[in-house]
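Chapter summary example: a protein plus pyridoxal-5'-phosphate.
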Amino acid sequence: MLYTSTRDKSVKVTSAQAIAQGISKDGGLFVPETIPAISKDFVDSLVGLDYISRAKKVLSLYLTDYTEDEIDMCVGGAYAKGKFSSDKVSPIKTIAKGENILELWRGPTCAFKDMALQLLPYLLTTAAKKTVADKTIVILVATSGDTGKAALEGFKDVPGTKIMVFYPNDGVSPMQKLQMTTQAGENVAVCAINGNFDDAQNGVKKIFTDKDVAAKLDSKGMMFSSANSINWGRLVPQIVYYISAYCDLIENGTIKNGDEVNVVVPTGNFGNILAAYYAKKMGVPFAKLICASNANNVLTDFLKTGTYDRNRKFFTTTSPSMDILISSNLERLLYHLSGENDETIREWMGLLSSEGKYTVNEEVKSLILDLFDAGCCDDKETAETIAATYKNGYLLDTHTAVAVKVYEDYVKATGDDKETVIASTANPYKFSAAVLGAVAEVPADADEFQQVELLKEATGEPCPEQLATLKGKSPRFTDCCNKEDMVNKVYEMLGI
Ligand SMILES: *Cc1c(COP(=O)(O)O)cnc(C)c1O
């Protein structure tokens, strides 16, 4: 199977090349030329298997230039026993009739990003051996909070790699910041920027596609790659857990193979929900894909009207990992829905960058309306949903709460109460202040770790050890730069 660029169909690369490179030279994203189909029997063959075995079978459909041994090594390393706090890796909890919470945050950094970022370093170093042998891979990451930590944890001290993370100085939770600034490892660096996530992401994309910067790195035996969800190596592991979740619902008797299931995803960069789209296109009987947003509801408007307009107020919310106005992975969806029309994608993405706005044609709009539903909610509704769901016995983080609220609105509006998978993207203790505020009184002067204690007292839920032990650690990385200076920070870190 080959991969092409959303902005230039003449590009043809292997999956290893796509993963090593991260983004196409034309600024487009790599997509598979054809989406592999799976049968009902294939799904049956996965039921009863563990996560690692399911992952091997699914990944081998997409990474056809990796040998079976390579895939075994990658998957076996990423999801080895003990790395995730559940033997199922991503267990399902049914919290009400039809509401099946898919816990994707059981990994080392307590957010769903671990599902892909534990695997990506293996995929990437294997790809590098196949394609660019002796180059040092420099991973640049723009993060709204969770990707940064998960990427640092995945790549720390991985031979042949260096990693640098940029995060918005005022756009991440205190726990997220501390997770990143205390990161261990000889090959890591972290820098705040004065700006929001979109500034960080645009800055990183610019550095990636700057020919002079690439030439300078090349002369030092280095090349860039990406650990953001623009990298195909981030998306493909996410397809696995949607297929696996469907199998788990069969296994626990909730559905029969072939039954339709809805999927709700709290969405920022459109990566996680796009993985559900790929699973559906492969043949998993997913019905509606429901996109949940916070007050930054650019996707809700787009999926309902066909006009993407980022010219709007940016809100800092209690679900910061979704505070995004430019959802990169939408480009992949539009490429597939436009009949793989690279010219159209160039036009729309050109308008997005020049005007901040584009409108898709009627054919694409009607395909979108068919596939997706969308909704949004504000911080107050998020808190109310955390409180109400907690009363029923389950503690949600802020992002997952947005998804649950949008799901409940969807059922009310449509009466469609099919079994539904709700992607749960973070452990509540990553966002202690907001979660605590929803279920109990917060003393005005309580710091992050007092809030953790109070949340423990109020709910009896255990705080993951990797978060609890951050208490008292002093930050190792305290740099903050303007977005214009990001490239110099990269040179500084690389010593070039
Ligand atoms: C990254 C993230 C999201 C958004 O995921 P996308 O793939 O960017 O849409 C939602 N919730 C949490 C907790 C996250 O870390």
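Key point: The radius of gyration is 21 Å.
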